[in-house]
Write a structure and sequence with these properties.
Layout (H helix, E strand, L loop, with lengths): L2 H4 L7 H6 L15 H7 L5 H14 L1 H18 L2 H13 L4 H21 L14 H11 L4 H23 L4 H10 L1 H11 L12 H11 L9
Helix pairs in contact: 3-12, 4-5, 4-10, 5-6, 5-8, 5-9, 5-11, 7-8, 8-9, 9-10, 9-11
Amino acid sequence: MPLQMIDRDPMAILPLFVWLSPSYPVGCYAYSHTLEWAVEAGDVTSEETLVAWLTDLLTLGLGCNDAILLCHAYRAVRAGDAVALEEVNELALALSPSAELYLETSQQGRSFLDATLAAWPSPLLMSLEGDVAFPVAIGMAAAAHEVPLATTAAAYLFGLVQTLISAAIRLAPIGQTAGIRVCASLSVTVQNVSRQALDLSLDDIGGATFRADLGSFHHENQYTRLFRS
């Protein structure tokens, strides 16, 4: 089915409500993507600093890169191109700057793909052996079940934002009401990043979130930790 036809079916997005729910068995609650270290280091201490930290993650590294990888995995599945899919997944895994962040994406990706293969089977859903990056797994499932690509990319990034806001609330620099405000304030950024990623190539992947990347190494030796990353 052509992608433009998929986008016209409003019911096609329903699987996203399940796949990106906190109840889906991927363990997203266990990861903070260096946010725990940022709180410990004093980089994130308030609603305003959390917005700044998450904005940088979305626009300068993790968010944009994940959206690009998701789009390319989606298109590989739609084209039935197993080689391209393998290459996208290998790149996604290789981009992890530390062991903790590799675990974050590979554990969630593998868990998501296994659960989806078991509960939402599709002849189009290819099975990747070994580690699978989380955005790649989401893109694969969305393509196999004809969920619109643009909506999937935006929903994935919103899910990422909500996971990190939940981590921030548990780490206590903000409360629940502030967390809702942060989520709302980042909605335009999420939409812009996901929309831009639709037209970007794998060569456009890059990153400038050096402090967050280095923080993932420091987090491994942090004295007290709630999260695995």
